[in-house]
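Hi all, posting the design record for the shared folder.

TITLE: backbone redesign
STEP: 1 of 1
STRUCTURE INPUT:
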């Protein structure tokens, strides 16, 4: 299965190495516009990070985990700050949406198959 996912300026291409020449794809992307410079990041240990996900390649399937940068502090704006209510609630809405979107049924094994 080959797939293409894009969010703003982050692109994920899932491909079969024996079917797709990724360097040719990279050259094509970089040829679209002179100001466009696409770089390539390869998986390491059958894993790659995309947005706030870690994608793990298994046998005939991909699974995802939530990726947290080593510098993550989990600090959100305190409710008694001088920020607007919208700013104060933004983090809560984000985390609530992420739980619903990623379908984290098991706290022990936070993985979801995407294939």
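Okay, here is what came back for every position:
SEQUENCE:
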């Amino acid at each position: 299965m080959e797939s293409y996912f894009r969010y703003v300026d982050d692109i994920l291409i899932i491909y079969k190495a024996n079917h797709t020449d990724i360097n040719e794809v990279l050259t094509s992307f970089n040829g679209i516009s002179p100001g466009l410079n696409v770089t390539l990041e390869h998986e390491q240990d059958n894993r790659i990070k995309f947005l706030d996900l870690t994608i793990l390649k298994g046998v005939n399937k991909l699974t995802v985990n939530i990726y947290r940068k080593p510098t993550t502090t989990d600090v959100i704006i305190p409710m008694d700050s001088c920020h607007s209510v919208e700013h104060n609630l933004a983090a809560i809405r984000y985390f609530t949406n992420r739980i619903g979107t990623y379908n984290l049924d098991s706290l022990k094994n936070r993985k979801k198959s995407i294939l």
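COMMENT: Strands lie at 3-7, 10-14, 47-50, 53-58, 61-66, 112-113.
Let me know if anyone wants the other runs.
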